[in-house]
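Q: Hi! First time doing this. I have a protein sequence and I read that you can turn it into a structure. Is that right? Here it is:
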Amino acid sequence: MTLLRKSVFLFSLLAAFHVVWPIVETAHAEPVSEQAGNAVYPDHSTPWKDRQRALVIDAYEKNHINWLQMVRNRQIRAFIGKASDGLPSPYSCTGEDHEKTICKKSFQNYFMKQQLYHTRRALAKNLGLKWGAYHLGRPGNPIEQANHFLEFAKPEPDELIALDIEHDDPDKWISFSDAEIFVRHIHARIGRYPVLYTNHHTARKIAERRAEFPVLSRLPLWYARYRDNIKGVFPMGNWQNYAMWQFSSGHNCSKKKCLYPVKGTPTDIDVNVTSLTVAQFDKAWPFDSLVPEKPQRIEEAPLLVASNSSSGSAGQHAGDEVQLTASVREAVGDALSADDLKELGVAAVAIPAPSPRPVQTADSVNLLVKVRHTDTASKSGHEERKMIARVTKDPLLVPFEMAFDEASAMSARNY
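A: Yes, that's right. Below is the predicted 3D structure, encoded as structure tokens:
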């Protein structure tokens, strides 16, 4: 093929998949507000507003991209492209004529996607971006899927690899048990582990079953949740934090409202923030090691931790009795103020020693408050309220104590 024909073929391929590379572009940096540059944001509330945080774009073959315009944003450090999807397309087509036609079209489409993937990879790396690839897990032989992914993406040692588990429905997506086999096979072949991409619901399911899936539950987490705040989510199982958080996509981004519009891309592009600065990110990429294993916690039998016979404290009637039991467990939820418990006459909770195991900061405690109304002049009967509260003070400094004060804003929820 002559040089001219090669150029025409490449341009046609990029145009066919809506990849735009403008001929003329005026280079200038995006404006940075002084307020945004000086502010400090925590990991779980709009961290992308910190101009030091590294951002990652991910896309599939139909996303339109103006590459030169996109890379002007110096926060954007990497691009992750969709590679393989489930099992590979058949290399030979059999059956009736119409079946052969569909099969051939499918393989042609597969071939074009693979060519676009490698073209985008070369383009992104030439523009100074780090590169990554993900496999969309489907039902089917997990070893064949892993081999398919490696054959399709041909990942280099400096490139991120990821397994995408869209949901925990094994009829539509790869099952957890197959995903465990998939990641183990990837490691056996190339000596590296992939990142796990999934949503909040599925991540929680994997965290809860981490004893069954000891490798899957320790992959660096690429966390998908389309909101500006994820306070109270972490720690979750082995994950103390996310490696990347996909916070913006076509789900929550439009021309009128978008958490982070990316110049050079439409509103359906996926935008991810990391928990690292740009300098830290460059060293941590491609996130191919397991996160530390968190020891399993054994849920304990409920213990009587507080009781009170009130003579008319806030929220109670004279003669009411309050009993509160608790068992240590792992859980997260929304904020519960001190007033919620003060209304029941409980100012603080202390788990009695010796406990079956030492209580630690950030432990969650399953609370059951029982109020028995004994004042016949007022209402009578029993009232129960269940809550989950988190230990907020260091039990080594304040032994086994959970203080229900507004300043510490205990993570808890009613259920």
